């Protein structure tokens, strides 16, 4: 068999697809790779960008696509809320910078008042999405797999604290992104966790590793222990 350039290209795509399917990938607890990336705000070093604060790094399948246009507009609309909480935003798609810059005009027109003031990475070769575990194994174009709607929240220690992985057909809810940021920040500050359906302002639960004696010292405001059939005093609510 003669290896034509087309055949070689198809072999590369197949290998790429297989590795995308099997890849365990970057996940919570992992340190974000120290990559140099091209963005709409110039070249960025990921460790430099993520140092000393919180970062939301989020990908989307492609420029000039409907759900993505609504998502990036909403992200821009919420950006003030994120910045007030010490959180930086960094988007990604596999189109090039010229396309991103053209697309930003549509995003801002669709979401009036929203300014896309966060950088968007251009991952033309789809190498960055592999390293950041942002590949959608099911969405493809003629160049291979597209990014999924992945979202990593990176903590000040450069480690992934939370990840969402949504398919192309499901747009993300920025209220939920804000809610989980508040939860992560509370848990990093106090020995607490947030229960099911928690919203900012609701009571939080005291972490299981904290004894009642320690809890009395830590939470001057007091706490309430739920009386459960087991009589194990592990469900304790407080306000922080
Ligand atoms: C969208 O953004 O609307 C989209 C992108 C890729 C596949 C499906 C939907």
UniProtKB/TrEMBL annotation:
Its EC number is 1.11.1.24. One of its GO terms (biological process) is cell redox homeostasis. The active site is at residue 68. The keyword Oxidoreductase applies. Residues 26-186 form the Thioredoxin domain. It catalyses: a hydroperoxide + [thioredoxin]-dithiol = an alcohol + [thioredoxin]-disulfide + H2O. The keyword Glycoprotein does not apply. It holds the Pfam family AhpC-TSA. Thiol-specific peroxidase that catalyzes the reduction of hydrogen peroxide and organic hydroperoxides to water and alcohols, respectively. Seems to contribute to the inhibition of germination during stress. Belongs to the peroxiredoxin family. Prx6 subfamily. This is Peroxiredoxin.
